[in-house]
């Protein structure tokens, strides 16, 4: 219990004291996960809407792949990305291994199925009669899609939250492809693992509290946004 209180006080001291390394780790975590979430959202929401609204050859196979991706072990994704970006891999020429770019790629692959899958479920839960009514009013395909997405906005927001939660707290994949390099690829989760292995439990708890605070702030922001949208 004493370690918990010490970790909380140290977290406050590190944040309020402007500790450069702590801020660098925190900002890199937000940058990597934020960019990965942006890519996942840009791809996942349109794909989820497509799967929820239209039938086409191979749709069931795509849905099965999305569901598989939602439960895929992140460390396995990290291994696959590592092999892709290694010198002998097909993308080795990019030179991304052990850089933030590799971490963004791994986190995008992890969060993309979550965003697409939950968006698809949200779209499919909308009353089919709404689509018929919108089309009867003369709406084109794009307008109909946006109308359905707006009606399913709560579920879409949840999909984004799920995508972010799945990557900001992920450790295995980013450690494999990022290497946990100080000042370059060290993020909150990998720093927590490192400090725990070193026996620096106070600092590990401090970083854990910062990670929890970020998750709380993001969820609070999303809830406020959801409340405004539901008005």
Order of helices and strands: HHHHHHHHHHH
**According to CATH, what is the topology?**
MetI-like fold
Give the C-alpha Rg: 20 Å
The CATH homologous superfamily: MetI-like
**Parts with pLDDT < 50 across at least 5 consecutive residues:** none
Secondary structure tally, helices:
11
What characterizes the major β-sheet? Answer: none
Tally of structural domains: 1
Q: Structural class, from helix and strand content?
A: mainly alpha
Indicate the CATH class: Mainly Alpha
End-to-end gap: 43 Å
Which bin fits the share of residues in helices? over 70%
Give the overall shape, derived from the CA principal axes. Answer: globular
Give the strand content.
under 5%
What's the count of strands? 0
Question: So, CATH architecture?
Answer: Orthogonal Bundle
Mean pLDDT: 85
Fold blueprint:
Elements lengths: L1 H15 L3 H34 L5 H12 L3 H12 L14 H25 L3 H9 L4 H11 L1 H16 L3 H7 L9 H10 L3 H30 L1
Helix pairs in contact: 1-11, 2-5, 2-8, 3-5, 4-5, 4-9, 5-8, 5-9, 6-7, 8-11, 10-11
Task: Tell me what the structure shows.
The chain is mostly helical and 231 residues long. It has a single domain, classed as MetI-like (MetI-like fold), CATH 1.10.3720. Helices cover 78% and strands 0% of the residues. The protein contains eleven helices and no strands. Helix 5 runs antiparallel to helix 9, helix 8 runs antiparallel to helix 11 and helix 10 packs antiparallel against helix 11. The radius of gyration is 20 Å and the shape is globular.
